[in-house]
Fold each of these.
Amino acid sequence: MIDQLIRTPFTDLTGVRHPVAQTGMGWVSGPRLVSGTANAGGLGILASATMTFAELEQAIIEVKGRTDQPFGVNLRADAGDAKDRCRLLIDHGVKVASFALAPKPDLIAMLKEHGIVVMPSIGAAKHAVKVASWGADAVMVQGGEGGGHTGPVPTTLLLPTVLDAVDIPVIAAGGFFDGRGLAAALSYGAAGVGMGTRFLLTRDSAVPDAVKRLYLERGLTDTVVTAKVDGMPHRMLRTDLVAELEETGTLKRLGPTVRRTLEFKRDTGMSWLALAKDGREMRKAQGRTLGQMALAANTPMMLKAGLVEGDTTAGVLASGQVVGVIDDLPTCEELVDRVVTRAADELRRAASYVV
């Protein structure tokens, strides 16, 4: 485990040793991966969108039992129990609250009042400006190379527009996997990087080994962005299932969609009223159509089938394009150490060019 080599506004803000964050990936970013990242000196972020309230509390307790380092929790700002979950973070002294969608000013104020760092993920400069005006402490910006829900603009173009728009720390995500990427992001003006696929492919990740091997076999052109899973652009590995979904019409997908909605309801213990409330908030926050909201129930269950149960014939495998340049499974400590060491070397090398 290396000492701090690079200090940025992100490390100062969160109290972590290195400017590296492990993103909150549903079904992947559990206590083992989060604590492994935290113990390595990075910011581990627990993914709570696929957890019940009780499961989230248990996961937080487990992370705290595995590490005494700062960590974060990713929350759905449009969840019906968002305030209760924020209160849970406060009660357990979680350091960082990240959000996939912009939290409203009252949630931000509630968290900041108790010393919790608020870091929403955003996909456009105007969204960064909005959350910064509401009091967000930092933002994570993901370019189109990233896995999961993503946009069309690459990180190299999106990042500078966000940096020009706000004066709070910006964490760059989408396309990062090594120290050269961290050095590049810092040179742009970012305060650190977020990595998802790279952390998924570590020995600390609970994803089944057979699925990890499948990822390692893929090349740079082996991901695809499709809206056929949940109605929104989603980057994942190109598989036979994804090809089938791409060719299947809406009516043919209706049956599986209803089945997975029932499975999601059963797994989360949510009532039909809670599901309806969440759907209403999703429609209000994201502007989704009724059809897209119905398809949204596909995502957690199809990701669970692939990433937890290892069934690639019935599940999807979210992935960034960096999957094509990853060929090993280090521990979180090995990964963070080599990323930060290489970044420091690259920054020194680049500084030597200045006359």
Amino acid sequence: MSRIRASAERILDAEPSAIWETITDYQQRPRFLPENYRDYKVERSSDGKDTVLNYTLRAGGRERPYQMQVEAPTTGQELVERDLASTYTTRWLVERVGPGAHTRVRLTSEWESRASGVNGFFERQFAPMGARRIHEETLARLGQILREQEPATAGQ
């Protein structure tokens, strides 16, 4: 068994609080998720506590359903989503960088590969690249959503 990890990060021109609010608004989240995410729905939510998300992720020509339990170990900075049926975990890290409204957002997924032989080789070599591309697109779309929201909040 080997641990597989894929990560992407981007600095966005927004306050950390605005980013946190956007990524934890699970009704809005489908607006910035790439087409790789299908059938996204919030199964259970109680103002961010005990939130469970369901979706099917399409990557590398395969689809797999996920049921993700959400937790915020450090509110405003770290959001963790754990699949209830596997070792798959996605972690969002949000941190201010420099002066002004500049925030680094890092999106990382990890899982234990049980595949061996040729299948294990291909998963270790290619799955992280595919997941990283999906994360990069997610962060780019998140940045776009934040830019679209900017004029609405600028006058407040």
Amino acid sequence: MSITAPKTLASNWQTTPTPCAELNDWLFDQGSLTQRLTQLCSTAFTVKLLAEGWQTLTADECQTLHISDGSCGWVREVLLCDGAKPWVFARSVASQAALYHSDFNIDQLGTRSLGAILFSQPAFNRGAMYIRRLPSQELPAQVQSLTQQHTRVWARRSCFTKNTLGVLVAEVFLPQLWQDTQHLDFNTL
């Protein structure tokens, strides 16, 4: 199945922490976000698959993965949820050429968590964490409706590498997460 080209999760990513230590704990946590969310769920951790398939990667994704502009890649977009309540939107991409030369079957995950697999395979190394305030209108339409009245949400991304394979994972923290976990509404910071 292929998906249409998204609005880009464009550049302006940075490694500079925010002034809020509690928010930085979420944004720069090097552990498994899946594991952290699972521990916080009041019902059951679920992965809702929104879309996956081959498509042309954005220029920013190509640059980050060190591949030619306009390269094709596998794109997977999911919601990480507490039961049916979406907490995080995740977009994971990997180059087609690198996937063909690897033994990693990202196209067969279904509703399993990519994070759980990446953290269970010690051969994957996580690169630096980058963060940014992301305008809601850069998110896919079905995710924009989950940001409520917020015009900007916090996002982070990092690249997991194994030999020549790079898997770029971007995670967008939705307002429902902050509400359900009784944190400040970090999206207003």
